[in-house]
């Protein structure tokens, strides 16, 4: 008898998410010094966390023996104030990825389906699978979500639609007009999830919070992992109408976000200067990378986020060869893009080294 005879059957063909390769692993495997390696593989903030967040973390470390505020009162209040919402509109997650899991707990059963774009963030499909739901992957011409086609794909069994805006790994954006037209077509029983992990990098972000205010069946996901530089702490949030948030609250563990993360997130949220600086560096690095790709004759997908998807031939081979030279990027075969790599935007210096190494490898 095997464990598989009694484990949930949908887990059998679930392929685990493969994260960006850690610097330490590469250093160990290749005998390189960690400080000679740069990681441009997980869309992390090259400036690190805000100094104010670091200070806030130091302060709470001495109180680590006390359970965190399970209700996340202060942080949820500050988030709500920032967006002109109420605390009851906010749920915290151990990363916004955890909120994706809450939504699954709340709405998915075997036989249901979830709609995503063909090249959407992989976690949506993984989570659907965990709950025994199917994922309908809708073609995305030019690597842009086709919201009309996604609305047309809705069936009576559809429970959730994910719109990653900008999407990861493509970096593409759908407009306000496309979103409004889409929302006019979505029936009330379908939860629409706007995943806005890269929202703060946009110059003119579409407004999806208006749907939250209108009480539509909408969750907007945001995270402290990207522009805030707190990926290691695992903290993000969802914004939605109070009744929907209340349903999600029932699916979570009592202390799902830790005290250090809550303190850092609160300080980081209020540190606009650090976010502005990060955005400036990202804009500069994106211009540089995309300019270099054009000069090198490489096809790339113009990005609205802090990474760029670029076509290099054998993505896996290029990823490995670059890693040998101390630059970690991300191969994209898991996203059905075997000829592409995704490069996170680092400091200008890191971007320059990355291009240097890419040129050597090609
Ligand atoms: C990085 C990312 C997230 C954030 O994940 P966390 O769990 O908050 O670290 C969510 N959605 C997308 C599309 C992402 O790229």
Please characterize this protein's 3D structure.
It is a single chain. With 362 residues, the protein is α/β, with parallel strands linked by helices. It has two domains: 18-48 and 273-361, Aspartate Aminotransferase, domain 1; 61-270, Type I PLP-dependent aspartate aminotransferase-like (Major domain) (Aspartate Aminotransferase, domain 2), CATH 3.40.640.10. The protein has 13 helices and 13 strands. The protein has helices at residues 23-30, 51-61, 73-82, 96-107, 123-130, 147-152, 176-183, 209-213, 242-249, 259-270, 272-296, 315-324, 348-361; strands at 38-39, 90-93, 113-117, 134-138, 158-164, 191-195, 218-223, 236-239, 300-301, 307-311, 327-328, 330-331, 340-344. It has a seven-stranded mixed beta sheet with strand order 2-8-7-6-5-3-4, with helices on both faces. The protein has a four-stranded antiparallel beta sheet with strand order 9-10-13-12. Strands 1-11 form a two-stranded parallel sheet. Helix 2 packs antiparallel against helix 10 and helix 11 packs parallel to helix 13. The relative contact order is 0.17. The mean pLDDT is 97. Bound molecules: pyridoxal-5'-phosphate (PLP). Pyridoxal-5'-phosphate is lined by residues 43, 95-97, 121, 164, 168, 195, 197, 223, 225-226, 231, 236.
